[in-house]
Amino acid sequence: MTDTRVLFWDIDGTLLTTKRAGVFALEEAAREVCGRSPDFAKLRTAGLTDHEVAVLAIRECGGEASPEVASAFLRAYERHLPERLGWRRGGPLPGVVAILEQLEDRPDVVSLLLTGNTPAGAKAKLEHYGLARYFAGGAFCIDGDDRPTIARRALSVAAEHAGEAVEPDRLFVIGDTPHDVDAGNGIGARTVAVASGSYTLAELSAYDPWLALEKLPSPSRFRELLMLDG
C-alpha cells in the first residue's frame, strides 16, 4: 500500500462559487431542449450531479427525462457555461488557493476532484477561476452517474495517481453538502465537511463526517487537522 495521501475535492461551494452564473447556462439549456426554463431559484440543486440537475429541470418543465434528452440538456449546458461564467464575479472561496498552493509541490499529497460536474463543466469552472493547475484529474459525472457511482470510480482514480491502492485512512473527501459526506463515507474515506455552501455546520454534522468545519482554516491548521505532516 502507498504512503501517498489523496485529497478528493468537490467543486461548487467547496472550491469556488460561480455566484450562480452557472444557472444562466442551465436556463439556456432548458430553453433549447424544453422550450422554456424552470425557476432554478426554487430548486434545491446543491450537491446534485449535473445529470440529476438536468433530469430535475426537464421534469419541472413537464418533459420526459429520457437518457437522450438529459444528454442533450447537458451538452447544451456545457456549450453555454464558459461564456456565462463571465456574467458574475465568482471565484475561489476563502482559504482554497492558500491550501492548494502549499500542497501543490508535495510529492506525498495528490489533489484530485470528486464532483457531480461533468468533465467539461468542471474544466470550464476550474480554468475560468484559475484553479485547474492544482488538480491532476478526478472522478466526474458521466451521463447517468449518481454520487455513489462517481465515488466508487474515485477509488480507481486514486490508485492510478498514487501508483497503487490507497488505504482508507489516507483518502479524504472534502465537500460542502451531505451528498459529499455520504459519498465519501460510502467508500470508507475520511470525510471533511465544510459549511462553505448552503448547508450549516449542524446540518452537515448530522451526516457523521470524519471532520466538520465552519470554514477552511489556514494551510498549517488544515495540514494539522488532516494529519498530512505525520
User: How many helices in DSSP terms?
Assistant: 9
The number of strands is 8
Question: N-to-C SSE series?
Answer: EEHHHEHEHEHEHEHEH
Approximately how much beta-strand content do the residues carry?
A: 5-15%
> Using only CA atoms, what is the Rg?
17 Å
Largest sheet composition: 6 strands, parallel
**Low-confidence spans:** none
Overall pLDDT level: 95
Main sheet strand line-up? 5-4-1-6-7-8
Helix content: 40-55%
State the secondary-structure class: alpha/beta
Shape, principal axes of CA atoms: globular
Distance between the termini: 17 Å
Structure, explained:
With 230 residues, the protein is α/β, with parallel strands linked by helices. Helix content is 43%, strand content 13%. It has helices spanning 21-34, 50-60, 67-84, 96-104, 119-128, 147-162, 178-186, 201-205, 219-225; strands spanning 5-9, 16-17, 91-92, 109-114, 138-139, 171-175, 190-194, 211-213. Strand 6, helix 7 and strand 7 form a beta-alpha-beta unit. The model has no long low-confidence stretch (mean pLDDT 95).
Which SSEs are present, and which pair or pack?
Layout: E1 5-9, E2 16-17, H1 21-34, H2 50-60, H3 67-84, E3 91-92, H4 96-104, E4 109-114, H5 119-128, E5 138-139, H6 147-162, E6 171-175, H7 178-186, E7 190-194, H8 201-205, E8 211-213, H9 219-225
Parallel strand pairs: 1-4, 1-6, 4-5, 6-7, 7-8
Antiparallel strand pairs: 2-3
Helix pairs in contact: 1-3, 2-3, 3-5, 6-7
Quick recap of the structure?
It contains 9 helices and 8 strands. The protein has helices spanning 21-34, 50-60, 67-84, 96-104, 119-128, 147-162, 178-186, 201-205, 219-225, and strands at residues 5-9, 16-17, 91-92, 109-114, 138-139, 171-175, 190-194, 211-213.
